């Protein structure tokens, strides 16, 4: 298949750069795979779709402030991995300033570039710890076209976030309130969302794309709940990738699973997800669960109905 097969036209004014005042006030498009029917509902209606034997699976990864600016504000570091507390694997900007041996000051800490990797990432060694709460910023998606604010620390985080490690939020979970979570039979997995979620597919042929790797974990209690469920509803593509990597069994490790049409799902029966970027691996995943034709028709209808798109946008329930 071609990357261009998953393109669609999106008016920029439909990109949601701000969250709604209430988490659960989003619209929800319901797509029925068996009939092709499309319904327009509100997210608060989600409990109406629960059947006996359902299990909702959430990603409980917590977003960490991973973006840091130099003290004069002209250089930027995005922490991809804390190899140790003082050794980070990073993306940097501007790259020409981060030559081997170059130094950067963040707060009171001085970092030195000790290695440049083949892909352009840097290994930076710090002389003292950096306080993320003071100097760290959330790495909001580039399409929001704004800097993070204090209120993003709460809103760009799910109410059930627990295990720190994500650079980006598992955004399908942002709609949930504690009250709605309590109404649903549920379990948790963990997948730490990396910066690769924002990176475009740069190859023309899908089979040539190399998926980024992310750390995941699925506990024994969640595996047991899955084994007893009649229908597993994944909340988000990150939970979906975890479930499909693990086969619903207790496990942990790294996954670079790439799900696109032709993939046969082993665990996931339904999916709640946001609306995704054109030609992204995420729209390819949802097209694998439904079909490319049905998903593109649904997206065209979402544009006509002026749904809000991407991280802070509305959601789609694929049944």
The CATH architecture assignment of the largest domain turns out to be 3-Layer(aba) Sandwich
The total of helices stands at 7
CATH-derived topology of the largest domain: QueA-like
Helix content: 10-25%
Overall, the morphology is: globular
Largest sheet: 9 strands, mixed
Distance between the termini: 24 Å
Q: Which properties best describe this structure?
A:
319 residues, QueA-like, Thrombin, subunit H, 2 domains, nine-stranded mixed beta sheet, seven-stranded antiparallel beta sheet
In terms of topology, how is this protein built?
Elements lengths: L26 E5 L6 E5 L11 E6 L1 E3 L3 E3 L6 E9 L2 E7 L9 E4 L2 E8 L5 E5 L5 H4 E2 L14 H4 L7 E4 L11 H6 L2 E6 L22 E5 L1 H9 L2 E5 L1 H10 L4 E5 L14 E5 L6 H9 L2 H13 L10 E4 L1
Helix pairs in contact: 6-7
What does this structure look like?
- It is a single chain.
- With 319 residues, the protein is of the alpha/beta class.
- The protein has two domains: 3-63 and 141-318, QueA-like, CATH 3.40.1780; 67-137, QueA-like (Thrombin, subunit H, Beta Barrel), CATH 2.40.10.
- It has helices at residues 132-135, 152-155, 178-183, 220-228, 237-246, 281-289, 292-304; strands spanning 27-31, 38-42, 54-59, 61-63, 67-69, 76-84, 87-93, 103-106, 109-116, 122-126, 136-137, 163-166, 186-191, 214-218, 231-235, 251-255, 270-274, 315-318.
- Strand 8 and strand 9 (109-116) form a beta hairpin.
- The longest helix has 13 residues, at 292-304.
- It is globular.
């Amino acid at each position: 298949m071609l990357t261009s097969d998953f393109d669609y036209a999106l008016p920029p004014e439909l990109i949601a750069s701000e969250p709604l005042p209430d988490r659960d006030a989003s619209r929800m498009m319901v797509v029925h795979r068996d009939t092709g029917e499309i319904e327009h509902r509100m997210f608060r209606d989600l409990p109406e779709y629960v059947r006996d034997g359902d299990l909702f699976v959430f990603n409980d990864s917590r977003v960490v402030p991973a973006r840091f600016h130099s003290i004069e504000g002209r250089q930027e570091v995005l922490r991809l991995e804390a190899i140790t507390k003082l050794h980070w694997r990073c993306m940097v900007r501007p790259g020409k300033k981060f030559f081997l041996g170059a130094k950067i000051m963040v707060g009171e800490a001085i970092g030195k570039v000790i290695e440049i990797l083949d892909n352009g990432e840097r290994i930076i060694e710090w002389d003292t710890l950096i306080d993320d709460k003071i100097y760290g910023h959330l790495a909001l998606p580039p399409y929001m076209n704004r800097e993070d604010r204090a209120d993003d620390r709460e809103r760009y985080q799910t109410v059930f976030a627990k295990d720190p490690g994500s650079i980006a939020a598992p955004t399908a979970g942002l709609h949930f309130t504690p009250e709605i979570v309590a109404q649903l039979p549920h379990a948790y997995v963990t997948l730490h969302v990396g910066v690769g979620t924002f990176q475009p597919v740069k190859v023309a042929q899908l089979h040539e794309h190399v998926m980024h790797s992310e750390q995941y974990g699925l506990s024994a209690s969640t595996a047991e709940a899955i084994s007893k469920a009649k229908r597993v509803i994944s909340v988000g593509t990150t939970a979906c990738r975890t479930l499909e990597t693990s086969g619903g069994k207790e496990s942990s490790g790294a996954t670079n699973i790439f799900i696109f049409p032709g993939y046969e799902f082993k665990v996931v029966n339904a999916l709640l997800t946001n609306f995704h970027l054109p030609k992204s691996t995420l729209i390819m995943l949802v097209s694998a669960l439904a079909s490319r034709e049905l998903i593109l028709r649904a997206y065209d209808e979402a544009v006509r109905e002026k749904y809000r798109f991407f991280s802070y946008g509305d959601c789609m329930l694929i049944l």
